UniProtKB/TrEMBL annotation:
Organism: Dyella japonica A8
Entry similarity comment: Belongs to the ABC transporter superfamily.
Keyword terms of this UniProt record: ATP-binding, Nodulation, Nucleotide-binding, Transport
Lineage, uppermost ranks: Bacteria, Pseudomonadati, Pseudomonadota, Gammaproteobacteria, Lysobacterales
Transport is among the record's keywords: yes
UniProt cross-references to InterPro entries, sorted A to Z: AAA+_ATPase (IPR003593), ABC_transporter-like_ATP-bd (IPR003439), ABC_transporter-like_CS (IPR017871), ABC_transporter_ATP-binding (IPR050763), P-loop_NTPase (IPR027417)
Database matches in PROSITE patterns: ABC_TRANSPORTER_1, ABC_TRANSPORTER_2
Domain of life: Bacteria
Protein name as catalogued: ABC transporter ATP-binding protein
CDD domains the UniProt entry points to: ABC_DR_subfamily_A (cd03230)
SUPFAM superfamilies, A to Z: P-loop containing nucleoside triphosphate hydrolases (SSF52540)
Length: 309
């Protein structure tokens, strides 16, 4: 999948601004960004549901949106609302979706039986979808999205309404699909999910501000992250917030995670910057994480320092 100069405007609002994407086959490719960053709009343009204002899109060798109709049978799409029929049973939901996708009656029966077993729904096949828990609905929605064995699966914040255990189980299912050859695009605002992706794009205000493997992106920030243990963390945070070399300070219990603007601030120099603070502190360096990447990317738009090949 490739996109060049992908742009979408809604009136005066530029929802997606000249985005370039390259998504390898059989890859779990994540879109990370706050609400309104352009994640959902980008996914909808890639699958032909929205027409871009500018740019070129190639999905599975098809030019989108011109060949969007031919793409429909080759992709699966799942939203955070799950798009289930609440008054149909689990089996009826899957049978209906299989029919819509053009499966024969014989193939539908075999495929639905397989999915009920794989997603642990065979003991609930007669239960109405509207009476299921969030995690059960999620498994059913995923089964429905892949009932026709799509080559590409697009997931728009699919874990926002489920518990942590269901989220973890859901991601195991995604990796199983990727291992079998399915390309997966998934949007999320959870850092722990973004870290799981093979490759990650960070969007902010419609701009692609970072793109690469999570480890590549975090490695670029090595030397910029410190942790401060303090008996008066709020006092220390106030001092650090006004320091010209500090980009962000996040309090985690009695610890402060500090992200610097530059990577040439030594541990001793950082300690020295706290000499005037009337509080007991202990400072050490820590490896950068994806949240640090997100902060740098979204607070320094247009610099491109986090882009990776």
């Amino acid at each position: 999948m490739h996109a060049r100069g992908l742009t979408k405007r809604f009136g005066a609002l530029v929802a997606v601004n000249k985005v370039d994407l390259d998504v390898p086959r059989a890859c779990v490719y994540g879109f990370l960004g706050p609400n309104g960053s352009g994640k959902s709009t980008t996914i909808r343009m890639l699958c032909g549901l929205l027409t871009p204002g500018a740019g070129e899109i190639d999905v599975l060798g098809l030019a989108i949106p011109r060949q969007a109709e031919a793409l429909k049978r080759r992709i699966g799409y799942m939203t955070q609302k799950f798009s289930l029929f609440d008054d149909l049973s689990v089996r009826q939901n899957l049978e209906f979706l299989a029919t819509v996708q053009g499966l024969s009656r014989h193939d539908t029966r075999l495929r639905v039986d397989e999915l009920l077993r794989r997603y642990r729904l065979n003991d609930r096949e007669e239960q109405l979808a509207g009476t299921m828990s969030g995690g059960q609905k999620q498994r059913l929605a995923l089964a429905g999205a892949i009932v026709h064995k799509p080559e590409l699966l697009l997931l728009d914040e699919p874990t926002s309404a489920v518990d942590p255990e269901s989220r973890r189980d859901f991601w195991e299912k995604l990796f199983e699909l990727a291992d079998a050859g399915t390309t997966i695009l998934v949007s999320t605002h959870y850092m722990d999910e973004a870290e799981r992706c093979h490759r990650l794009a960070i969007l902010d205000n419609g701009n692609l501000v970072a793109d690469g493997q999570p480890k590549e992106l975090t490695e670029k920030l090595r030397g910029r992250t410190f942790v401060v243990h303090a008996d008066s963390p709020r006092r220390v945070k106030a001092a650090l917030d006004s320091h010209p070399d500090v980009l962000s300070v996040a309090q985690i219990g009695n610890e402060l995670r500090v992200l610097m603007r530059r990577d040439d601030v030594s541990l001793e120099a950082f300690r020295h910057s706290l000499d005037g603070v009337d509080a007991s502190t202990d400072v050490h360096t820590v490896p950068p994480n994806l949240e640090d990447v997100f902060v740098v990317a979204t607070r320094n738009p247009g610099q491109g320092e986090e882009r990776a090949a």
